[in-house]
Structures are given as structure tokens and as C-alpha cells.
Design goal:
2 copies of one chain form a homodimer.
Chain A lengths: L3 H8 L4 H7 L1 E5 L1 H9 L4 E6 L16 E3 L2 H7 L8 E6 L17 E5 L4 H13 L4 E4 L9 H6 L8 E4 L2 H7 L4 E10 H7 L5 E5 L7 H4 L4 E4 L14 H12 L2
Parallel strand pairs in A: 2-3, 5-6, 5-9, 6-7, 8-9, 8-10
Antiparallel strand pairs in A: 1-4, 2-4
Helix pairs in contact in A: 5-10
Chain lengths: 251, 251
């Protein structure tokens, strides 16, 4: 039995202030929920149907698995088509490795104000693919626990550590080389091929790029050259640019 | 004065069947509309406010520029926040250069069933950036004149030629090398660096990849290696993968 109050509480997680207050977030769909369980995230509660409950029969705390009707799942879901599995997890406060020691081979992706949840989700998925397990987000970057981010990350959010903090605090302690994506800079592939150490890559917001405050910490500006000189296209989408740069740094 | 019937007709363009029947599509926002006008697309009608009409004072057919209220634009718009400029253009039926002659230095991007409008828009923007002006879409690829595609392409749709056709017809006549993105294949960067000729790059659908019918035409399967071997991430988003491959082929 799922009470109206419980449904209301889960639904309230669509707002950031409620997610922050409770320290929870919502994950929808069998595959993504399994990814979060496999990465030892702390489950608050999981709602599923009679049909799908067998997927969770080995879960260590069976009392947290609630079997309910599709109708209730439809009420809880933030998606147009509610899946048969919806889970609530505790938000993590990751302790990231520090970047004050060179040679530990840990790279960082820094996001300076990404606004679009779809872009953030795609970037988290890219970081996971390219083995960047540490993402630092400025305090004005969109919340990684929003529904659209969680769903666009396709479970990668479960595997990547994301920390929201004042970027100046991060950079004043950082000792790694800092590459920043700009419209003018060194050809990114040359820089990437020359770089064999751990690094920090900074990507700016969709509308404003890297802020001038953070630009001061960038040791090498890099750019993705435009092949089509006749085109008046001004920039690439930030998720596309991140895809290209992370792939070049991983070559 | 904009009549109710006119508003209804413009609004009807949110459906593909109406876009096909009228041969029209809708573009919203000053910057994108200007891109389409600058690329000599045929304007059907343009609605704008008193505030913004000065941007179009040099347009050759002033009778097609209609000044109206923001309230009317709110009614016409397909976006959550209606802009001050909305235009209707005629769809183009592009004659693409053929790929039956080698050495003409024209490359093609082939999309085999892309479903997500945001992905298609992002891919069109990437093609524009990397100088691929010819895109062939399978008949089951999402319509490039849908609102979300037009807006995500950020005006690049005005500069890139897109043709919907039976892909087998295209490939049986094609003489260029055909690279296809697969989860298993040769390391894409090696192939790209070795390739200095015009090429065809095929990207498959989000859910099913390249269909087996089209796989038969692929002369070289390529893949983007996953750096994070511990991760159980299965694939990259198709727009991210297209970004990486086009950037590598343009090196």
C-alpha cells in the first residue's frame, strides 16, 4: 500500500529545493535503477510492479522494495510514459581525490555554469565513457539530480562523482594543467596529443562560455577548428564540444 | 491584421502531414530566421513586432513581412516562450551532388533512422561546423522540419542540404568509401587519419544502430574506443558519437 502522502513526497522531488531538503533524488526505469544499485548507492525506497519485482529478489534490504500497481507508478513518475520501476536514492556528497599532487593520473572535468539538463546528462555519460570519474560543477550549474539529467545520463551518474563547489576554491589549490574550451585558442587535437598527464578540462555555459573569473585559471586555451569557413555558425553545442575534446584527450 | 484562419494554418505546421501537404515549415527567433533569409530560402510569410521589424526593412518582398502583436505571436509559436520573429519558409528539395565520381571531394553524412529531434538538430549543426553540406536521411529518420530539429540546428539547417531517400538506392550508386559507426570496429581515429579522400559516414538509430540492410554497404566499420573499461556504459549518445567522428575525419 502506497499512501497519498508518500506519493506526494516522491513527486515533490521534481523540485530542487525538496531534493536538497530531503537529500534524495528519483531514478526511473529498470536499467538505470539497476546501475545505481550496483554502484552501492543508498536506496531509500523502490516501487515496482508484480511483473518486475523478481529483478530485485537478491537485494539486501527487501523491506525497501514496494510492490504496487502501474497506476501508482503513473502517479509517481516524472516521465511521460511511467516505467515499471521507480527508485529513490540518497544524494552522495563525494570526496573527490585532490588535484594538488601531480602524477596521480586523475583528471577532472570542470563545468562552469552548464544550464541545460540534457547537456549535463550527456556530458556525464561522456565522462563515464572516457574514464573521467571526477566532475566539478560551479554552484550555478544545473542540478545533476534533476529528472532530465538523471535520465539523459543513462546510469552514468551512478558511476561518476560530481561535486558542486566554488570553482575558485578548487582552482587555487589545483596543480594540474588547466585546459579551457574557447572559440579562439590552440588547436585542441595538437594540445591533446602532446598531453600525456592528468589534466583539468573546463567547459563553459551554453550562453556565456567560461566566465572571466575562471578564465584566469586556464593555463592553455584550446579550440575545435571550424572546417566550414563559409558558414556563419558561431559555436558547437557544449555537449558536442565536450565529446570531441574528451575523445581527443583519450587518444 | 492576422486572421484566425492564418493563425490556425501556421499552427498546423507543427504536424508533419501538414508540413508535407503545404511544403512549408516554421522558424522561430530573429537569429535563425535571418540565417534562413541569408541562405536564399523562399519566404512564405514573416510575422514580427513593431519593435523588431527594422531588421527586415531591406527585404526584397516587403509584402511578406507582417507586423503584429506579441499576443498573436504567442498564439502562433510552438515554443514555450514565443519570440518576436516567426517565419514560414518553403521546404527545399535539394539536388545533392552525386557520389558516383571519386575525387570530387564531397563527403556525405548518412543517417539511418535517427529518431530524436534534438539529436538530429545537433547533428545538422555538427555537419555545418565540419563542412559536410550533404546529409542523406533514411525515410524513417525523423523529419528535419519539425520544430525541435529546426531550433536545435541553430540555423545550420539553412546551410546544409538534407535529402530523404531510400538508402539502398543511394548506396547502390555510390562509389565513395563507406564508414559506419559500430560498437565493434577499427579504432576510428586511425581510420580517419589515414583517410584523405571524400567519404560517406553512416550513423545508425539511437535504439538499433545501423540496420543490417545498410551494414552490407559499409566498407569499414569504425568504433570510438571506451576508455573506462570498468564502466558498464553501453554506448554513446548518437550526436556525441557523430561529433567525435566528424572531428576526427576533419583532422
Amino acid at each position: 500500500m502506497v499512501t497519498k502522502n508518500q506519493i506526494k513526497k516522491i513527486k515533490s522531488l521534481r523540485l530542487k529545493k525538496n531534493r536538497l531538503q530531503l537529500g534524495w533524488f528519483c531514478v526511473e526505469g529498470l536499467k538505470i535503477v539497476k546501475d545505481f544499485l550496483n554502484q552501492n548507492n543508498t536506496l531509500v525506497v523502490l516501487y515496482t510492479t508484480e511483473n518486475q519485482v523478481h529483478h530485485f529478489k537478491d537485494y539486501s534490504t527487501p523491506s525497501k522494495i514496494v510492490v504496487t500497481s502501474q497506476k501508482v507508478l503513473d502517479q509517481i513518475s516524472n516521465l511521460t510514459n511511467a516505467p515499471e520501476v521507480i527508485a529513490v536514492f540518497e544524494q552522495k556528497q563525494p570526496d573527490l581525490p585532490n588535484s594538488t599532487t601531480l602524477g596521480n593520473n586523475t583528471s577532472f572535468l570542470v563545468l562552469d555554469g552548464i544550464q541545460d539538463p540534457g547537456n549535463l546528462g550527456t556530458i556525464i555519460r561522456l565522462a563515464d565513457w572516457f574514464g573521467i570519474t571526477n566532475i566539478i560543477c560551479s554552484l550555478h550549474t544545473t542540478d545533476c539530480y534533476a529528472t532530465k539529467v538523471v535520465q539523459a545520463s543513462m546510469g552514468s551518474l551512478a558511476r561518476v562523482s560530481i561535486k558542486y563547489q566554488n570553482l575558485s576554491d578548487f582552482f587555487t589549490k589545483n596543480k594540474l594543467p588547466v585546459y579551457g574550451a574557447f572559440l579562439e585558442g590552440k588547436r585542441s587535437i595538437d594540445v591533446a596529443i602532446a598531453n600525456k598527464e592528468a589534466y583539468v578540462l573546463v567547459m563553459g555555459s551554453e550562453a556565456h562560455g567560461i566566465s572571466s573569473e575562471i578564465e584566469a585559471f586556464v593555463t592553455q586555451k584550446i579550440t575545435i577548428p571550424k572546417s566550414n569557413r563559409d558558414s556563419n555558425i558561431e559555436s558547437l553545442n557544449v555537449a558536442s564540444a565536450t565529446a570531441i575534446l574528451l575523445s581527443q584527450f583519450s587518444v
